[in-house]
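User: My advisor, Dr. K., asked me to get a structural model of this assembly before our group meeting. I'm new to this, so sorry if the format is off. These are the inputs:
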Amino acid sequence: MVSQTNPISIRKGWQCLMNWHSEFIANIVNVMLQLKKLGKEDPRRAIHSFKVAFAITLVSSFYYFNSLYHSFGSSAMWAVMTVIVVSEFSVGATLGKGLNRGLATFLAGVLGLGSYYMVHSISRGDHIIEPILLGIIIFLATAGVTYIRFLPQMKARYDYGLLVFILTFCLVSVSSFRDKEILKTAQDRVTTILIGGLISVMVCIFVCPVWAGGDLHNLVSKNIQKLGNFLEGFGDEYFGTLEDGESNKLSMQEYKSVLNSKQVEDNLINFARWEPCHGRFRFQYPWQQYQKIGNLSRQCAYRIDTLNGFLNNFSKTPKEMRSKIQEPCMKMSIETGKALKQLSVSLHKMIPPSAANTHIAASKIAATNLRSMIKTNLLEDYTNLFEVVPIVTVASLLLDVVSSTEKLAESIQELSNLAKFKNKESKVAAQDQKSPHHEEVPQCVITINHLSTNLTHNIGTS
Amino acid sequence: MVSQTNPISIRKGWQCLMNWHSEFIANIVNVMLQLKKLGKEDPRRAIHSFKVAFAITLVSSFYYFNSLYHSFGSSAMWAVMTVIVVSEFSVGATLGKGLNRGLATFLAGVLGLGSYYMVHSISRGDHIIEPILLGIIIFLATAGVTYIRFLPQMKARYDYGLLVFILTFCLVSVSSFRDKEILKTAQDRVTTILIGGLISVMVCIFVCPVWAGGDLHNLVSKNIQKLGNFLEGFGDEYFGTLEDGESNKLSMQEYKSVLNSKQVEDNLINFARWEPCHGRFRFQYPWQQYQKIGNLSRQCAYRIDTLNGFLNNFSKTPKEMRSKIQEPCMKMSIETGKALKQLSVSLHKMIPPSAANTHIAASKIAATNLRSMIKTNLLEDYTNLFEVVPIVTVASLLLDVVSSTEKLAESIQELSNLAKFKNKESKVAAQDQKSPHHEEVPQCVITINHLSTNLTHNIGTS
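Assistant: The format is fine. Below is the predicted structure of the whole assembly, which you can bring to the meeting.
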């Protein structure tokens, strides 16, 4: 039975097609807007894309110019490949990958050739024994190196090198079985990989470099600033002292990105350790100390997250009680917030964090006041402890945050000693106290958490 | 001036050499012990190494057998390369990489050839215009795709594919300039990559497969169990009701690994989405719901971290006060702990989490008791609120944890509805309540946090 063409079904089909079409257009527009936003958030992303394209175009000229092509032949392909695989966003990541690739290729090439000659001399060219022996060697080497890749210390810094080692070792020892000009091939491969690696490292360092160390430094200081923002705004939000319509909630919620910042920080520390001295960061800069600072910031952030949960619990506490405890609590919160922001400024400017001490001292005085107030007269009129519980908890958590901040200040002082921060700018810092360095942190930092996936997925390929 | 050989300096030199030697030996022994520990923690690591070695040995047989070699020639190298680069620890990661690589190679190959023929027909074989046009196309394509890699949704699932796309597009359109048999080369490359990808996917799936989905499932349920362990032990630790020498501290501190579990979970979710249905996980299993459960677990873990900070603050509270509040607090903590452990068991066994409801109800009753106790008679004898602060804070935090647990239970219920968990095992689950599923979670899970770097650094190479 053949169905007749029904005008209604045609109209329906047309409608479907139009819907699909408009949805498709909407999706494309959406992606375009996202791409535009990515570039606005951090223009270094667009620059990075052009840098990679430039390096590839440069290296592919090997193929176009006769003289260059004739010296390497089709091995020139390895140079193109190396540039594509090695080019990462930051200098540290690129250098790490480049060095891993270069060293691993060299070492595996030598060992692969060695194993081939050994097998060849044992088997005396026997076409049955030779592949069996080669197979056994490849099996053992691959299994061993794959297993070593699970070691955490190898994983963190040399994972890519170990992968390239397996790759080159297999390629050299397998192809040695057929390729009669194996030495020439190996030599060409090492040379072209070195050329590719050099080009991508050069472009990465000399064209608008992105330093993982600088990003790490900015990320850690920005995170501390976010914690400070929360605490500075917390008193007003909790005690409801803001005018109608006014609210700090937006900037206060920024602290949430600190909670899950560990992975990004660890990756940046790994990359930063590959980088040479640059800008304000000297040779063998104590990058590991940032791990300690980051951990303490997160510890503080966990307390703040608990505090955040109490922001809506306020209504139950009676007004008189509130007003009694309000002053020291607000003082404590604001001073701790200022201390954190001052710590962030000092870290960012690389000056000793002494300017934060006055705020820490003030917050400790407020804490002592609060304690003695709680000790003496707070409960004179209240026998109903239940109404007091939320505010007492908040006060207690704030006391906890004050001691976390002290620990954080100590770890930044340690960094200051290790990295020999100098004090000449301390006057400027004191002036900046009122206007935090929000404007000074380059806009890239704003999006550094967004970038987390970029940095963790440092994927290479062939 | 030539210095004479001094017996003392020789002895010193010898001592140095011996020190260096013994240090070297100690280092090697240390690494060996670590390797042994890695294998003990999770034997799947050793199995994975042998699987990779087996796949590589299998694919390298292409080279040894004349007939196979003659049909592909040196392109057989690409198969070896693909196996090495694509073989990842879990099935999901391997499938994701394999599909990305296969599709990207095919697409880029076609587009690369297309762009070459277009350029060739425009330039009509002119040896100056042709490389310039090719260079412009490569520059634009590379810059565009590199920029698209920054899009978070592309980064998460298709980053490797985009990289391979750039690679293949460049290789094909560049080498087309020199290679006269470009079609044959492209065809060989696609075929060998498909063969390599197939071999590694087959070995990964059919030889002791490691499912990212299963790992994710175990990780999330194990994390909830860790939170439960803390809360079950907290009452005894805080109120000091344990015998001398007894302590839960070791198992209680396990919750710390939950704080930074986000990255590992997100990666496992991404991998799990590539996996076909397997075991108890059907097609289109709601993996995204694990993200919600994980986030709620972490929120609970932040509160627990704050509670943990109060474990040493106990001494200040007077004994009588302590004994008054002790019962409901302990009840609340233990019941919440049991509820979390029951939720973990239900999740692990994939049965509806109804068995946890009794514990949640009991913890809520304890919470109501605590509230009314605080409301009425707690402060009769105490005018010094200061002594009461820590314990009131702890009680308040416990109340907060109870409501977090409720939310967590709801999200697991949602998963249960989405994934259609069945209730036939509920009796078994009720029995298991006293003996949590510690023994049942395969030992691999114990080390899953250790593995985090493995999963985040899914590095490939050439």
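One thing worth pointing out at the meeting: Chain A is about 75% helix and 0% strand.

User: Perfect, thanks a lot.
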